[in-house]
Amino acid sequence: MSCTRLVAFIALGLVFAGAPAMAATTFAQNASPPVQTPPIAPAVPNLAAPSALQPGDAFGEQVMLPDRTIIYLKGHTNWDTAFDTLVDSFKSLNEYFDKQGLKANGPALTIYTQTDDTGFSFEAALPVAQAPANPPKGDIAVGQAPSGKAFKFVHRGGYDAMDATYEAITNYLDDKNLEAKDLFIEEYATDPITTTQDKMVVNVFVPVK
Questions:
Q1: Rounded (5°) CA angle 55-61-195
Q2: Which of 54, 102, 125, 155 has the greatest number of CB atoms lying within 10 Å of its CB?
C-alpha cells in the first residue's frame, strides 16, 4: 500500500496497529490506543473529486444506509494481494449461494473493519432479502451490514488506483469537519469478479458520527 493511502486510513481512524481483528459493527470499548505515528507534513489540500468521475457521480453525497441482512466471509489480507483475496472471497460466497439456492439482493460489499501498514481485516458480503432458514456454518456467517448516516463517494478504475479517491475523501471530510466511524464500506456497482479493473465502479460509503 502506498504512503498516501495509509495516511488516508489514519485520518479516517481505521488504523489499529497490533489490534486483533474485530467485527464490522463491534469494537472493544477498552481497546488499547493506536500506536502514535510520527507527524506527517501536511499536503496541499486537494478537495477536487478524482478526474475519472463522470457527470452525476456522487462525491460527498449524504445518504442513509438501510438495514440489510448479509451473508459474509471474514478475512485478512496483505495490501500486495488485497484485490485477489477479495475476488477469491466473493467466489467462495457465490459458490455457497449456488449450493444453497440463494440469490443476492444487491451489489457485493467489502466492509473494512481494521487496517494497518501491512494489510487489513474485512468482511466480504452479499446482501439477502432475509436470513436463510439454515444459517451457514464455518467461515461464512449471517449478519447485518452497517446502517445509518454516511457519505457516498464514487470511484472509477482499478483497485490500485483508489489512493487518489481516498485522499480526496479524507480532504473532503476534513473540510466539512466530519468525523468518520471506525469502518468504511465499498459497494461494487460492477461485478468485482468479471469486470476488468479499468472498468470498475465502486461506491465508497463512510459512516459518520
A1: 60
A2: 125
The model's pLDDT over 68-94, given as tens digits with 9 standing for 90+, comes to: 999 999 999 999 999 999 999 999 999
Helix (H, G, I), strand (E, B) or coil at 88: helix
Nearest partner of 125 among 202, 199, 203, 68, judged by Cα: 68
Q: What is the 3-state secondary structure (H, E, C) of 144-208?
A: ECCCEEEEEEEEECCHHHCHHHHHHHHHHHHHCCCCECCCEEEEECCCCCCCCHHHCEEEEEEEE
| pTM, 2 dp | 0.79
CA 71 to chain centre: 16
**Which residue is it, cell 448516516?**
149
Domains and CATH numbers, the chain: 3-27+54-207 (3.20.80.10)
Are the C-beta atoms of 162 and 120 separated by less than 8 Å? no
